[in-house]
Amino acid sequence: MGVYHADAIVIRSRKFGxxxxxxxxxxxxxxKINAVAKGVRKPKSRQRGGAQLFTYxxxxxxxxxxxxxxxxxSPKESFSHLWTDLDKTMAATASAELLDLATIPGQxxxxxxxxxxxxxxxxxxxxxxxxxxxxxxxxxxxxxxxPLFKECTECGAKVQGERLLFSPELGGVVCGQCQLQRKSPxxxxxxxxxxxxxxxxxxxxxxKKLGRIRxxxxxxxxxxxxxxxxxxxxxxxxLKSWRMGSRLVNVGQNPGGKDxxxxxxxxxxxx
Length: 271
Prior knowledge:
By secondary structure, the chain is of the alpha+beta class. The protein has helices at residues 86-102, 110-122, 128-142, 176-181, 193-204, 217-235, 240-253; strands spanning 3-16, 20-27, 31-37, 56-62, 68-77, 163-167, 172-174, 187-192, 267-269.
């Protein structure tokens, strides 16, 4: 038992009992923390501000055997811009969900804390989908799951071409020769060389320079779809917020509700 302080960001909040919430915090010091914020759904709760999703603050936490308790919450940054635009809200939600699913409590990841903190600030100015994609690629790379966009995952040869095969199971692109040599089909989806190059930029580039990157709607859909599948298959978990955001993008692009063949990435066998 004991009490400790943590600078943390609220990445998840769910109801618990009549007036409590269970918060998932991601802290600089100890990584992910699950803790009860008692009475925060009451209108006069002093901790209400520090319990809001995406809030960054300092928390005084009492250790428990199974679940910790937040004794005090002092918000420092609410990231209010994340609530003024649906695209920003969805990008922040998708990023927070990925961080939650990819990490376990009690393991410090100061680099991921900094990455998340920076991404939330950048969403005020940069295109939300670009920030979301760059965040996901950098997070996966930091955790040891760097996808290969320029070399074949099977033989290591440089891959060239306009329509290439990306295999989430294998962790990157597969050259034509390796596809032919495989006895069983390689599951994956065709992706343009331009989209692969842009994803490589997002992975290696500085988040502060995202404003220099340009993409069209077709590439946006293709990249979002590819990164989603890669993260889900690698982590063996379903990204609900990412899927919801993708549906909103497609509905906004195609109000009639019918799929446009030229804009919809497809899953194929690499044969």
